[in-house]
Amino acid sequence: MKLSGGEGGGRRTRAAAHELARYESLFAARTRGMKSSAMREMMALTEQPDVISLAGGLPDTSTFEPEMYARLMAQVAHESTARALQYGPTEGMAATIGCIVEVMAAEGTHVDPAEVIVTTGGQQVIDLVCKTLIDPGDVIVAEAPTYPGAVPTFSAYQAHVEQIPIDDAGMPIDELEVTLDRLQDEGRRPKFIYTIPNFQNPGGVTMAMARRQRLIEVARERELLILEDNPYGLLRYEGAPLPTLHSLDAAALGRPGASDLVIYLGTFSKILSPGLRLGWAVAPRPVLEKLNLGKQGADLCSSSVTQTFVAACFEQRGSDGEPWWREHVERLRTLYRGRRDTMLAALEENFGESASWTQPHGGLFVWVTLDERIDTTDLLALARKTEGVAFVPGRAAYVDGRRGSSSMRLNFAGMSDQDIREGVRRIGRAAREQIGLLGSLTGSSRAASSAQRAVDEDSAPAAGAPLADVVALPRRDEQPTARRRRDR
Ligand SMILES: Cc1ncc(COP(=O)(O)O)c(C=O)c1O
Asked: Is 201 in the pocket of ligand 1 (CB under 6 A)?
């Protein structure tokens, strides 16, 4: 079975069952819960020239001016050779931390540089927070759907994840409280609440101001930590920016810059480039110290080369004397706003009333919910094979892989307008074909729905199904009714 894999994007062959058997007794128990991130594996598809992939979480890296990249890399090479090629402090280089403080200030969040740790992407923050806080069986409360890249991390640490369904205004805090009450009755205290308040990945929605305030109050009343994952806050295409949970908590405490409940995750991936692999966490000191210890064990420090490069980027001035990075983000906002509009128009044109989708005010993603008869895990297999188009199936955003079956995540940032239009058109065609196939199985497309579901519920995952080499997701569908969220 072929699998495109790894960050190198090379094609790898998955180990055969008899090869695995030799090592089975050596693997730690936690590896049984490990699963591949649908998102990461989908990224390999982006390397195939014949596939239009709306699947990845990709920003458009071609927006980075090549001359700037070449000039700054040369500058790093000439002026900082020894420093850039050396190990650095685990918490990160002071110059890079200065850039982080600047980015956060641009979002109205003031932080103490001593409470920042530079990480190898925001992804490492999720991993380190779990490494620091989660014992097997510990509870994490997350949104439903949640970031598909967090799902394998939570699984690897054997967390019990409670997912709260989101709506157009993000996580409903009253529903969160119901879950927290239930957990309390069961004697379980969540280790943290994981939320992506801005332009949620994958939902595309933003947590309303009143909910942010209430979330902070609830966390304070119950002494709970929040992991605020905010890669997209600066990529806003309309509306006024909302304060981060970190800044709201600091304001509530009356200690600007210091929150004792919020662990904040940021990243340079979406405002500069994911290839830098640089992110950060801001955390209360005791937590920060543990994150630092965890990071020492993981990779000692993040790349000095890219940290030095980021510091050089932040020294640049743009045409009107403004920091260059801010102009770069402004250009991204203009570009992505246009692409978002293209995608929304293409959805309208190709799906009309037959689907619902979110209206993101920023970020990279639209969450689309199709006719409930369609299982997007199956649709992906069909769409890849017959149409050469890919997306992230909704189940990847659920830890149990059982919900979200009629939904999918589409990225509008990493593709040209033309590819967006063509990609959505192809998905529409595949969806119609899928409905037709269901109808022809039973003679009636309505009846097909329940009949197909009954078949699904009785059968194990189809052996050799085309999707099996992409994502191993269960096909049983216990909560088929996706929320309708057509907030136009
Ligand atoms: C919500 C969210 N968190 C974290 C990450 C990780 O980003 P990176 O490791 O590139 O900083 C991503 C990437 O897509 C994301 O969407």
From this structure: yes
CA distances from residue 223 to 126, 172, 218, 226 in whole angstroms, order as listed: 20, 19, 8, 10
What's the mean pLDDT in 84-108?
A: 97
- pLDDT for 43 equals 57
pLDDT more than 70, % of the chain: 84
Distance CA 483, CA 376 (A): 15
Measured in angstroms, how far is the CA atom of residue 28 from the centroid of ligand 1?
Answer: 27
149 lines ligand 1 (CB under 6 A): yes
CA 303 to CA 170: how far, in whole Å?
A: 34
Q: For residue 214, give the nearest of 173, 255, 175, 252 by alpha carbon.
A: 173
Is the Cβ atom of 266 under 6 angstroms away from ligand 1? Answer: no
pLDDT for res 61: 85
The pLDDT of residue 467: 30
**358 C-beta closer than 6 A to ligand 1:** no
Looking at every residue in the chain, the average pLDDT score rounds to: 86
Residue ranges of alpha helices (H) inside 225-284 are: 245-253
